[in-house]
């Protein structure tokens, strides 16, 4: 079927990614973000479970500066999204995820469990991947790990109770 301008190319109908990057460069950005997200959100496995956490929740354990340091680290994902040409909507959702993790991370014990379960960097990498794949007509979905969040709340509550009993 011919279009009004006479161009019948299916490439003409594809949405354009707002980037000067090639598809290979965009894939390299995603690979870097996957590695970054792995180390900040998932590189440590809780023994005898499938649950993983990373540097970000551990930083959150440092009173006062840990959550702020995690927020600063998360800015890397946003910077790469800008370089990849992500839309303003995607970047706003990334900022929202970063702020959710930061604000809830400030709550003692529960915030650390939330940090470990929410995994803002992994979510933001997935947001960028989904955006780029949608632009190329290929898209997956993600779910919130409620069970892991609940387990970590209990774990950090017990840890807090033990610390309170031993040192309190």
Q: Care to describe what's here?
A:
- The protein is an all-alpha fold.
- It has 8 helices and 2 strands, in the order H-H-E-E-H-H-H-H-H-H.
- It has helices spanning 10-13, 23-42, 55-60, 66-84, 88-105, 110-118, 120-135, 146-167, and strands at residues 44-45, 52-53.
- The protein has a two-stranded antiparallel sheet with strand order 1-2.
- A hairpin with a 6-residue loop joins strand 1 and strand 2 (52-53).
- The longest helix has 22 residues, at 146-167.
- It is elongated and about 60 Å long.
Write the layout of secondary structure elements.
Elements: H1 10-13, H2 23-42, E1 44-45, E2 52-53, H3 55-60, H4 66-84, H5 88-105, H6 110-118, H7 120-135, H8 146-167
Helix pairs in contact: 2-4, 2-7, 4-5, 4-7, 5-6, 5-7, 6-8
Give the H and E element order: HHEEHHHHHH
Portion in strands? under 5%
Poorly predicted ranges (pLDDT <50, ≥5 residues)?
A: 1-15
Sheet of most strands: 2 strands, antiparallel
Given helix and strand content, the structural type is mainly alpha
